[in-house]
Amino acid sequence: MKITGAVVVGLVFGSLTSLANALSSPYGPIGARVAGSAAARAGTVVSLLLDAGWSWAALAVVVGWAVATPARAAVGAMAALAAATVSYYVVDAYVWDAGTDMVVWLVVGVPLGLVLGAVGALVRRPGLTGLFAALVVPVGAAVQMVVMPPGVGLIDTRPANVAAVIVWAGAALSTAWALGRFWRRRRAAATT
Questions:
Q1: Which of 13, 60, 75, 149 could form a disulfide with 116 if both were Cys (CB 3.0 to 4.6 A apart)?
Q2: Distance CA 31, CA 7 (A)
Q3: Sign of CA dihedral 176, 72, 12, 158
Q4: What span is annotated as the signal peptide, if there is one (predicted)?
């Protein structure tokens, strides 16, 4: 993936996150039209999944992995997070007439994007380096699930429960994949 591709991925991610939030809230013009429907409940699940810190971190790590080289991965992930932040707030301004924290999140996202993009590039490495890099997102998701579970304060907790199951299952599967890959590579290196 090139840097321009990372920017496009970020633009799509940020826009989808904002739209999912708008769909899930009965207080906005979009969500009010579908309040109480299956679309609103699905929108709430998607919103809880996309509008979470671990999800934005996963965006940066995946972009870093796709770009591959550490320096370009860092720049690509930073660009993806910056594009996601800008598109999130542009769509928010259009859909909600809101969005005042963009600069704050850009200040946070740029340095984190650089670090998380480099982590994504390290996922390709063999040994403990690749293992630890591959565990960053699932461990981060698990920590966030414990510290800030999705949907706190929602009246209807069913979407939050669905989102929690998806996050825990994803974290478990990602961890199993990372550990399995680590042990397969280790066995292969031992036999050569």
A1: 60
A2: 28
A3: positive
A4: 1-20
The DSSP letter of residue 184 is: H
pTM score of the predicted model:
0.88
Tokens for 134, please give them: 């591959």
Q: What is the pLDDT of residues 99-113, one digit of tens each?
A: 678 888 888 888 999
Identify whether the C-beta of residue 11 lies closer than 8 Å to the C-beta of residue 83: yes
Q: Which of 85, 88, 82 is closest to 114 using CA atoms?
A: 82
- Contact between residue 151 and residue 159 where contact means Cβ atoms under 8 Å apart: yes
**3-class SS at 176?**
helix
66 token code pair = 């796709």
* CA 146/CA 149 separation, integer angstroms: 6
- DSSP assignment, residue 1? -
Task: Please name the residue that has the structure tokens 């461990």.
Answer: 139
Distance CA 30, CA 66 (A): 34
Percent pLDDT > 90 in the chain is 58
- How many residues are listed for the chain in this entry? 192
CA distance 75 to 117: 7
Instruction: Pull the structure tokens for residue 162.
Output: 């669905």
Token digits for 95?
A: 């859909």
